[in-house]
Amino acid sequence: MASKGVIALDAMGGDNAPSSVLHGANTATERFPDLHWLVVGDETQIRPLLSTLPRLADRVEVLHTESRVANSERPSVALRSGRQSSMWLAIQAVQEGRAQAVVSGGNTGALMAISRFILRSPPGIVRPAIISFFPTARGETAMLDLGANIDCDAEQLVQFAVMGALFARSVLGLPHPTVGLLNVGVEDMKGNDEIRAAAQRLRQGEYPFHFHGFVEANEIGRGAVDVVVSDGFTGNVALKMAEGTSELYSHFLREAFNASWMAKIGYLLAKRTLTQLRSRVDPRRYNGAVFAGLNGVVVKSHGSTDAFGFSNAIGVAADMLQHGFMEDIRKECERLHWDTSTAAQAASA
Amino acid sequence: MASKGVIALDAMGGDNAPSSVLHGANTATERFPDLHWLVVGDETQIRPLLSTLPRLADRVEVLHTESRVANSERPSVALRSGRQSSMWLAIQAVQEGRAQAVVSGGNTGALMAISRFILRSPPGIVRPAIISFFPTARGETAMLDLGANIDCDAEQLVQFAVMGALFARSVLGLPHPTVGLLNVGVEDMKGNDEIRAAAQRLRQGEYPFHFHGFVEANEIGRGAVDVVVSDGFTGNVALKMAEGTSELYSHFLREAFNASWMAKIGYLLAKRTLTQLRSRVDPRRYNGAVFAGLNGVVVKSHGSTDAFGFSNAIGVAADMLQHGFMEDIRKECERLHWDTSTAAQAASA
């Protein structure tokens, strides 16, 4: 299936913008030749770059602005005074239907705040959540929420499970994903009230996935489930702990290979397969965190990534367009009557 | 300084008991020749083993029982019907002053419940917490709570910080530890109300450590702080995520070394330093989780560890005795007036 549509690119977000953004998009055109691009940023910087990227230049519209959201800016400040920023205009393009997705390497808090303000959530979704995915022994596993919601009630955890499963379907290509609730044990009485209530609802309802039950953090790397659901505080800590631990392991490994001449020669002999290993766990391959539960696809790229990393964040957005993630979410909201129940709650509030 | 005192050993707790327990204690006598041992369990199994371990046998008293707490037993059941169990009798020996510390590889929940019931907390300590430590790029870092308290308020987090610092002093040998509060960002407004309130108190008060502020999970492996403080849910998830990630990394590494003949030869050449690396991250070296905040030293060993692992759990208990951990806790409770403030709370409740 060809991926059609327009992706808006915040060409001022991230350390290496606009170069990494445009080179990343140019790489992405190979996998997604039918996509069009709306590049938002400083035309005087963008045009010279585009002239070196003819494949991309053919399918690009440039929206000029000189204003950007700084990395240090508070989300509330960006909301008040960032209306001419590249980030704002890129998100607005999705709201206006000029694009179907936006990819930005800018300030995470501002991107979430502006996206929520402009795009809002589909009827029924309480709050958006941040999803990402990473390698495991059996393939890839998605996790949410990664920090958008510090405290979550059972209703939100159930919604995260649905959004995570639809993400696994679109982006990881898993038609029947398994979903687990992150907990400190697998027995029924473990965890807090909200987690236990969410588990009860997930066991009873009919959802577009297999509910595995509780999952402990040490089982995630083994690929015990395709989607891990937790509140945003725990999810953020878990993801960063995994990052820190693999960084530490790499550090120890470098030390071990440098500890003797024999080890150095050993490293040279194993270099090819070790390089494959490094590529397998390369964070750039897993770049692209999705803000799910908004009226439009919003993908956050790491600010410090390069063109390869940025092209992967674009790939996540393109997969979501191609596989109809937004349509899936709306259908599930309807099927599960979230749209009417939340509307009723709002009316009675 | 010689380490004097008696350590009570639950010789029926853990998969390889009593063999791993007694062999572990025998190993520990090398580092701690002045310790005495109270071995609680089935004399008919213990005596034949002791006859092969003369160094240990010289300093052992055996307390016979044939009853044990099963691994699958609910803590509430163990509390009601476990009074003749090896675990109960070993903890009771600490309460009666026959021993100063207890080490058990048995059921974690039961060990916590029975320890709290028999030993209770020193005046001022709201609830005990579980502490453990692990390797980082700069040495070793301790973390608590690892699962005793799912929800924690600011008061508890402050107490964890103090207990963690005293643990780092006794067991990690760090006279001036730095303590960080685990959070999803380092800015003041990050986290929930309790974490922010705890940070404010830790910044203002005079505590026996340097307060680093908030710490993110990806900084832990770099050794950003000596002690990481969090609620028991987050701490449990973080520790297990680190375990799962290093397991995954080892799995990937084994695959890489098996992927080609060149890589296999490379492995053989680097084997000596890689084995040193494996020993550096060997979980048995970091065995021994402390239940801090009780009237007595209680150390939980992994149930599946061997004699080497068990000897390290004993080493943690012995270090705590040697360096006066219990005395330190009581002094801090007094100095910080926790003893009187909690007594006042209890009186007004």
Question: Topology, pairings included?
Answer:
2 copies of one chain form a homodimer.
Chain A lengths: L5 E5 L8 H13 L4 E6 L1 H8 L3 H4 L2 E5 L10 H7 L4 H10 L5 E4 L3 H12 L9 E8 L2 E6 L9 H17 L7 E5 L10 H12 L5 E6 L1 H4 L6 E3 L2 H26 L3 H20 L8 E4 L4 E4 L6 H16 L2 H11 L2 H11 L1
Parallel strand pairs in A: 1-2, 1-4, 2-3, 4-11, 6-9, 7-8, 7-9
Antiparallel strand pairs in A: 5-6, 5-10, 10-11
Helix pairs in contact in A: 1-12, 4-6, 5-6, 7-8, 7-13
Task: Describe the overall structure.
The structure is a homodimer of 349-residue chains. By secondary structure, chain A is of the alpha/beta class. Chain A has a domain of 182 residues: Rossmann fold (3-Layer(aba) Sandwich). Chain A is 49% helix and 16% strand. The first copy, chain A, has an 11-stranded mixed β-sheet, with helices on both faces. In chain A, a hairpin with a 2-residue loop joins strand 5 and strand 6. Chain A is globular. The relative contact order of chain A is 0.16. Chains A and B meet through helix 9, helix 10 and helix 11 of A and helix 9, helix 10 and helix 11 of B.
Question: According to CATH, what is the topology of the domain at 1-125 and 293-349 in chain A?
Answer: Rossmann fold
Q: Gyration radius of chain A, to the nearest Å? A: 21 Å
- Strand pairing plus helix content of chain A: what structural class? alpha/beta
Strand content of chain A: 15-25%
The helix content of chain A, as a percent range, equals 40-55%
Number of DSSP strand runs of chain A: 11
Low-confidence runs of chain A:
none
Biggest interface reads: A-B, 59 and 59 residues
Oligomer: homodimer
Give the termini distance of chain A in whole angstroms. 44 Å
CATH class call of the domain at 1-125 and 293-349 in chain A:
Alpha Beta
What's the overall average pLDDT of chain A, rounded?
A: 93
Secondary-structure element pattern of chain A, one letter each: EHEHHEHHEHEEHEHEHEHHEEHHH
